[in-house]
Design brief:
6-stranded antiparallel barrel, about 375 residues, 3 domains, 24 strands, periplasm, disordered N terminus, alpha+beta, 4-stranded antiparallel beta sheet, flat, about 40% strand
Length: about 375
């Protein structure tokens, strides 16, 4: 009996672990309405490049911004001609996180917009970052960490990665806060990242079970409203803390995603396939040009004539014939049935596309 009891305990623990592995926290499924980041963008100048900056003849905007910066610093450059190769005009982008406060730092990305060949070793000088409302919310400055390297000689050039773009960790300092009073909210709206009625209903159920009363209401497939007065929390922040770590098992639409460039196929666990027969073969049309040059006889009054000569051939591989793909009630059976066809991943993409057109593939088919 002891081995049997031990086996039952092990099976129960395995099933419990599998169930818990499928559970996802609410905070990983939803966004709190109003709690969001804001995109920032700015236009600046990177200096200190080792001859890899913009050519000012091809990028006149670099000369313009450099003149403006020098004039702000008290240097009169009116009528002067600049021809340095150690500066580059860049676009600076970043994201202002929710609840970011004045003085906090954020990461930024720097990208060249002229004909600079590399930003390696450059320094971004003070650049204001604007949001969509035109206001300045942060100021960026610092040493650029380029994402690649370049080596060039007289007859060869090697580029690895993207040397014309880089990042500056904590390279911008927040100068203005977003005007949003989170404590004044009386209702929280949870927006699902992937709208689904079943998932929204489960979120409503687990929140109401947690607070012991009907505080959450599913409005639609993508929104769950939470009445803060019914949660028993003394602030909206405390209410979010109480519900964001609750775990549910989300439901998603069955989906097959294929990347035709790399031949990658990704299937969700809910993909199902009906019984279907598949026949697949490759047809190759080959055309070859082999022109023939005909020379005149020696000392004759003639000229060389090129006679076109074309070879055309059609080749057809035997393929897989007519093969049956059985009904798959789970992902393992679907994969086993498709692998039984014995075709390459790129041929499998065409087969899945045809099965979807025949109505036997019960999933969304997404082509990237």
């Amino acid at each position: 009996m002891r081995p049997l009891i031990a086996a039952l305990i092990a099976l129960t623990l395995a099933l419990t672990s599998a169930a818990q592995a499928q559970s996802v926290r609410i905070k990983d499924l939803v966004e709190v309405d109003g709690v969001r980041a804001n995109d920032l963008v700015g236009y600046g100048l990177v200096v200190g490049l080792n001859g890899s900056g913009d050519g000012l003849r091809n990028a006149p905007f670099t000369e313009e911004i450099m003149s403006n910066i020098l004039e702000r610093l008290g240097v009169n450059v009116t009528g002067e001609q600049f021809r340095p190769r150690n500066v580059a005009a860049v676009i600076v982008t970043g994201r202002l996180p929710a609840f970011a406060r004045v003085g906090s730092q954020i990461d930024i990305t720097v990208s060249a917009i002229g004909d600079a060949s590399s930003l390696l070793g450059g320094t971004l000088i003070m650049t204001p970052l604007n949001a969509a409302d035109g206001q300045i919310y942060a100021v960026a400055q610092g040493t650029v960490i380029a994402g690649g390297v370049e080596a060039e000689g007289d007859a060869a050039r090697v580029v690895q990665g993207v040397p014309t773009a880089g990042v500056i960790p904590s390279g911008a300092r927040v100068e203005r806060e977003v005007d949003f009073d989170f404590t004044a909210l009386s209702t929280l709206r949870l927006a699902l990242r992937e709208p689904d009625f079943t998932t929204a209903a489960r979120i409503e159920e687990v929140i109401n079970r947690r607070v012991g009363r009907r505080a959450a209401t599913m409005l639609d497939a993508g929104t769950v409203s939470v009445n803060l007065s019914q949660t028993g929390a003394n602030s909206p922040a405390r209410a979010v803390v109480a519900i964001e770590n609750l775990a549910i098992e989300p439901q998603r639409r069955a989906r097959v995603v294929v990347d035709q460039r790399s031949g990658t196929i990704v299937m969700g666990s809910d993909v199902r396939i009906s019984r279907v027969a598949v026949s697949q073969g490759n047809l190759t049309l080959r055309i070859e040009e082999a022109p023939l040059a005909i020379q005149p006889n020696p000392f004759s009054d003639g000229q060389t004539v090129v006679v076109p000569r074309t070879g055309v051939a059609i080749e057809e591989e035997p393929g897989i014939g007519l093969a049956e793909v059985p009904t798959g009630t789970n992902l393992s059976e679907v994969i086993a049935g498709l692998n039984a066809l014995g075709v390459s991943p790129r041929d499998m993409i065409d087969i899945l596309k045809s099965i979807k057109a025949a109505g036997a593939l019960h999933a969304d088919f997404v082509v990237m």
